[in-house]
Structure formats: C-alpha cells, structure tokens
Write a structure and sequence with these properties.
Blueprint: H1 2-22, H2 39-94, E1 97-101, H3 114-128, E2 136-139, E3 146-153, H4 159-162, H5 171-180, E4 194-202, H6 206-211
Antiparallel strand pairs: 1-4, 2-3, 3-4
Helix pairs in contact: 1-3, 2-5
Length: about 210
C-alpha cells in the first residue's frame, strides 16, 4: 500500500511539472503548483463544485425518469440529447464554460484535450492508490484563466450503460449504444473507477472573485 501511495505522489509531482511547463507562464517561475489554495481560489473551486453537482443532479434525474418510463434502452437517446443540453444550459446560466469529458468518451464532442488527459491520469492514479481525491484548480496560459476539475466516479447504477460489455451491458443495449455513438469508448468501467470529469473554466482573476 505504501508503495502504491508513493507511486501516486510521484506521478502527481511529475504531472504537475508537465502541466506548468505546457500551460504557459506562471507566477512561480515554472515550479510545480501548490495543491493548497488561497481564499479566492477556494471560492472558485467551491463554485465549480456546486455547478458540477447541479449538472449531475439534473442529468441523473432526467435519466432516472427515462429509465422508469422506457427502460435502459429507451433512455439511451434521452441521454444523448440531455447530456449536451444540460452542460450548454449550465454554461449560459453561470456565464462560464462547463463541460464533461473523459479518458474514454461516449460522445466525441466531449473528447479530452491534452490537459484533460493528464488530469484523468492524475485522478486515476489517486484512485488506484486508494487515496482520497480532491477537486483541482489549474491556472492555464494566463492568470485570468483557471480550470476546475471535478471527478465523476463510476457507481453501480451506471453499469447497465458503462459497465462490462456482455456482463453488465446486454448485447441489445450495447447495439443501441453503438447506433447512437459509433465511436463509443465509454464501457468496461468498474464501480469506484474514474468515469470522467466535470470541467469548469473561469476566465477571471481569483482576486476579482474574492473582492466580489
């Protein structure tokens, strides 16, 4: 167990060093970023968490209603329509860029960029090492743009659409998934694993958040 924790910590240091090398200039001379935040940054993280939780609740309720009415197969097209519309509506409502992504996407419109992929690896290593994950706030190319990353953890209720093919997902269900998403990758997840991430981008200086 100690070895797994050490590997996760080492990966975290290497990952954050890469992020700061690739994301442009920072105010600390390019050193790895701290994983503690000032009051303004914590306010950003909290706001992003509330946005992600709100999106999750709305999407979950929409899918639960569809499953109750038409079963899992009937909920697949509902999910395709609702997932994107919910993130779009959230973005407009809060005035921020809100999206979902994953290292294994279902909808290619949610494909991760390079930083997303690194963050997915970071969370996966934390989870594999049995460490408690926390949301992460990353300064991007300028101090006026931050990304908040909020993991989506796979639970048993999602297995009928994102679990192991033929074991959790019946063949007829998977055929319907492939009809809606021909390039689907979002299967063979296990409960407790990283399913994806909510990403909230803040285009403002944290000092402005703190002073507002």
């Amino acid at each position: 167990m100690l070895k797994r924790h050490f590997v996760a910590d080492l990966f975290l240091f290497a990952l954050l060093a890469v992020l700061y090398t690739s994301c442009g200039e920072t105010d600390n001379g390019g050193a790895p970023p701290k994983m503690t935040y000032n009051d303004a940054e914590q306010a950003m993280l909290k706001q992003g968490q509330e946005i992600a939780q709100a999106g999750f609740k709305v999407l979950s309720a929409r899918l639960a209603a569809a499953i109750e009415k038409d079963g899992v197969n009937g909920a697949i097209p509902v999910c395709k329509e609702a997932a994107m519309s919910i993130t779009d509506s959230l973005s407009k409502a809060v005035g921020l860029d809100v999206r979902r992504t994953s290292h294994k996407v279902r909808n290619i419109a949610n494909a991760p960029d390079g930083i997303d992929k690194l963050m997915a690896d970071y969370f996966t290593n934390f989870i594999d090492a049995d460490k408690q994950w926390k949301p992460v706030l990353l300064p991007m190319k300028t101090r006026k743009e931050y990304r908040g990353y909020y993991p989506i953890i796979m639970n048993g209720q999602c297995s009928s659409c994102h679990g192991v093919v033929e074991k959790d997902i019946p063949n007829d269900t998977y055929e319907l998934i492939l009809q809606q998403y021909p390039s689907d990758q979002a299967v063979n997840f296990f409960p407790g694993s990283l399913r994806g991430m909510w990403v909230v981008t803040f285009n403002e200086d944290p000092a402005e958040v703190s002073g507002s």
